[in-house]
Amino acid sequence: MKNLNDEELMILVSNGKLDMMSVLFDRYHIKIFNFLFKMTRDKEVSQDITQEVFYKAIKYRASYKKGKFSSWIYTIARNIFTDYYQRQKNKDERFDTIEYKIEQKEPDQMDIKETNEELKRALNQLSNVDRELVIMNRYQGIKYQEIAEITGSTAGAVKTKVHRAIHKLKDHYLQNI
């Protein structure tokens, strides 16, 4: 069963073979967690939302139509994150100071550390929509077409929005240095 593609597995899940969801969970839970962690910068919240994503995938399995499974699961993750963010918006402003970590090959180099700090500040200055697009495209490596499916847009519009968000990031970065 592990040689089946994601879409074939999800069709089996939607037809009642719920044990096949464990294969999809193995394939996607780290990707979903990493996406959510980059958005929230809170490990526990990201774990909770990741768990909720797969719970909802099982609960709403009948709504899955033939199409790219990864787009469908990321759409669920994005919707749950948006709901969570809206609930938290009035409670605290922790999303305004999200910190991003960039892996360093040699953490003892001061130039790299300073660059990482400046990039963190620049990312924090982006709107949530722009930050989400940058994270999905640049950090998660999701293609424009798939982001379009996730966000309910067109690939051309997503490409333009990512391009603009990168320019905003560049402007914020250059202002900080």
Describe the structure.
Helices cover 71% and strands 0% of the residues. By secondary structure, it is mostly helical. Helix 2 (21-40) packs antiparallel against helix 3 (43-59), helix 3 packs across helix 4 (69-89) and helix 4 packs across helix 7. The longest helix is centred in the last third of the chain and has 22 residues, at 155-176. The chain is elongated. The mean pLDDT is 84.
Topology, element by element:
Blueprint: H1 6-14, H2 21-40, H3 43-59, H4 69-89, H5 110-125, H6 128-139, H7 144-151, H8 155-176
Helix pairs in contact: 2-3, 2-4, 3-4, 4-7, 5-8, 6-8, 7-8
What descriptive keywords fit this protein?
mainly alpha, 8 helices, 0% strand, 71% helix
Amount of helix: over 70%
Alpha-beta content class: mainly alpha
Topology, number of strands: 0
Number of helices: 8
Summed over residues and divided by their number, the pLDDT gives a mean of 84
Radius of gyration: 18 Å
Poorly predicted segments: none
Distance between the amino and carboxyl termini: 52 Å
Please describe the biggest sheet, giving its number of strands, its sense, and whether it closes into a barrel.
none
Estimate the global geometry from the Cα principal axes.
Answer: elongated
Order of helices and strands: HHHHHHHH
Strand content: under 5%
